[in-house]
Amino acid sequence: MRHETRRNERRAALAPADARGLIERGVRLTVEESSQRVFPVHEYAAAGCVIAPQGSWASLCPSEEYVLGLKELPGEPARLGHRHIYFGHAYKGQAGAPSLLRRFEAGGGVLLDLEYLVDAEGHRLAAFGHWAGYAGAALAVLHRRGLLTAPLASLSRRELDGRLRPSPASESLTAVVIGAHGRSGRGACDALGTAGVEVSRWNSADTRALDRDALLAHDILVNAIGTDRPVAPFVTKDDLDDPRRRLSVIGDVTCDVGSNLNALPVYDRCTDWDRPVERLGPRHRPLDVIAIDNLPSLLPTEASRAFSADLWPLLLALREGSPVWENCLRTFRRAVGSMDGE
């Protein structure tokens, strides 16, 4: 398991307790030291893991081994060997996707993208969705109340909930969650409930016959959909000038910006921990967007433990061959093949 190179990424794909579970079942697990991971490295050592220097996977890890992570790989090496397990974000036309796939092709490596680790019905088997939705909705509420400060920092759920709970002076707010019945959507609704915000729960049926006036009448929109095909936009640039618009904050948990799956084509780049909000619309009636693509790291302990509990039994199936991992491999090969055919 490699160190995450993104500065504010404190999550881990495996928690120490689940690392112990793998080792007790005969898996050899090496964990890189990390200056920022939420779990200290000594807990992995106590679980029986081999400890390696931070960033050493490229030079010390044998080519046939799996390299486990969460977010993007560093820019080097230019040729990627190994079998990498992480969220690659390389199959939906995202910026940088072709160059990443060419690095794998050049080095003979493989990407087993965790986003495509799904069951026969297409449901993700290991995901951060709940905590992504929770954090995204929480930030939207805090910003709407004027309580969001930057740069952001990781919190415990207790700390975040303490900030979310309404005070007697809190304005009464309404929110619409699109994709409310999925993991992210349920997490968003939980956070909004903690904040005392009235929630409209919308699903795909509501967006197929979108009541734009009803959507714009809410204070907050949380986008938590998961889709593999383009959908009609929920908010357009024309809506920014609509005099009936009450909507003032969008929390985009999905963050498909830059691809043709983006349901919110009113902004063109993700925000980040240093600048979490992008302001759009007329100065007197702005619309603010929060679109951070590693939201669960705001709650790294809770998010990591929940994800790890889903993932570690699936990792055991790697050595036996498994339809869900074979699906990841086929998806990677299709992506590389279609790139070569361009």
Automatic annotation (TrEMBL):
CDD domains, A to Z: SDH
Reactions it catalyzes: L-saccharopine + NAD(+) + H2O = L-lysine + 2-oxoglutarate + NADH + H(+)
Domain Alanine dehydrogenase/pyridine nucleotide transhydrogenase NAD(H)-binding: 158-291
All copies of domain Alanine dehydrogenase/pyridine nucleotide transhydrogenase N-terminal, residue ranges: 2-135
UniProt key word Thylakoid: no
EC number: 1.5.1.7
Cell cycle found in the keyword field: no
Keywords: Amino-acid biosynthesis, Disulfide bond, NAD, Oxidoreductase
Family: Belongs to the AlaDH/PNT family.
Subunit structure: Monomer.
Protein name as it appears in the record: Saccharopine dehydrogenase [NAD(+), L-lysine-forming]
Organism: Kitasatospora purpeofusca
